Amino acid sequence: MLKLHRSSVPLLSLVLAAGLLSAGAHAQSAREIRGAAPVVAIDNEAPARLIVDPPLPASLALGRVFIQYRTENLHIVPVFGKGALDVSPRIGHIHVSVDDAPWHWADASGEPLILVGLPPGPHKVMIDLADPTHKVIASETVKFVVPDTQTPGHGH
To answer: Is 125 left (phi over 0), alpha (psi -120 to 50) or beta?
Structure first.
């Protein structure tokens, strides 16, 4: 058991109170950070947004493309079909196409995109934010150059 000297109790109380006041003054609520709780329908939802970062430079230097993204006002989940359009908060997924390919793939993981095996040179990845019926809501294109890691001086 912790024993405090009688004279240290007021000081300890003051330190604890100052810490609580300080934490409260700087803390943001969960709603401010994460948005509305996904437990009730949201009236007049704000438009969905897609935010895409450029590839991580350290991985790109090794020929691996890691692209991080996030959404606002839409949750990425593997739920599809017309009935899912009425879900609130809004849900969807992404479509990914590389270098203007005539095809794309759908991803509902919410995890970073990982591309390996692209040849050295310039590339672009188009990421579409799509609703549960695959209708595109927003798009972002990321352009980057995969370095030639097979040239002398790269340690291979």
So the answer is: beta
